[in-house]
Amino acid sequence: MSPGPGPPPAGLPPPCQYTRPSDPTHPADDLTGFSTPGSGRGILDVFRYRYLLRLLIRKGTQTRYHGSVLGWTWSYVKPAAQFGIFYVVMGVFLGLDRGIDNFPIYLFSGIIVINLFNEAFGNATKSIVNNKALVKKIYLPRELFPVADVFIAFVHFLPQLAILLTVLLVVGWAPTVVQVAGAVLAVLIVLAFALGLGLLFGSMNVSFRDSQNFVEIILMFATWTSPVLYPFVLVRDQLPGWLFDVYMANPLTVAVELFHSAFWFSTTPETMERPEHLWLLAGIAIVVVSGFIAVGQIVFRRLEGRFAQDL
Fold first, then answer.
1. For residue 131, is pLDDT > 90?
2. Cα separation of 227 and 275, whole Å?
3. What is the pLDDT of residue 304?
4. Interval 68-84: pLDDT, tens
5. pLDDT at 198 over 90
6. Of 21, 96, 101, 249, which has the fewest beta carbons less than 10 angstroms from its beta carbon?
7. pTM, 2 dp
């Protein structure tokens, strides 16, 4: 057997030994102020990273038309061209221009709501994949990316709203405070609805790219399942009562009708039929949207750990 370690040679200090301090005022494992890497509070962390959020929004808005000759003019050209096509087909060919007073205002006020939802939802779905370089290299709340894309869609919505307001001021628009509040609520409903769906499908799209194709189908139906190109009374007269109630509980339907209430009703005679209990429907839409945000956040948090690996 080999001899055990003996005393240190003469002239050398004894080996250094660490002793845990016994002073209770200086605990050895005090981790106050530290957090586990990669953990967070979900979408609530977006408020802690406001500076990064502003950078992402600025980058998205500045690079949208990078290298384009017309630049931000496209934000006016695209909705105007879309409006022209729908107006000719639905208003002139199908005669809705004769059945709905001020049909151009009715049509355009609905189009810009759907455009806001389509851009916000579509971009949020692709936000994680489009930012895979950042996702794979550093930690930051991944919810920043879909939230930033929703805000970017709102910025691009403003030129379309400016066109509508310009036309309304020319024709003598005189809304009430309640109607304007309804329009603001409609925008919030659309943005929150797009964010909830964006969290859900954006997280799934990282591992299952079929999700993006499924979203494109949803966006295609969004225009036709809301009273944008036709009045809601046509749906009411064709569907059974319970199915019509489901149709009216659709957050997009509520948002479109709130926009009609703010921008179209005030320019039409009182004889034009309005949806009943619109503010009650708005409350139902808020509940539905809140549910989608909760489900989207849960699915997002469950799949978040696989983002870097799947990308």
1. no
2. 11
3. 86
4. 666 667 777 788 888 88
5. yes
6. 21
7. 0.83
Highest mean pLDDT among 35-39, 40-44, 167-171: 167-171
Q: What burial letters (b/e) apply to 101-118, b meaning 16+ CB within 10 Å?
A: ebbbbbbbbbbbbbbbbb
Check residue 200 and give its pLDDT: 93
Give me the amino acid identity at 240: P
Would you state the structure tokens that stand for residue 5, as one six-digit string? Answer: 């370690």
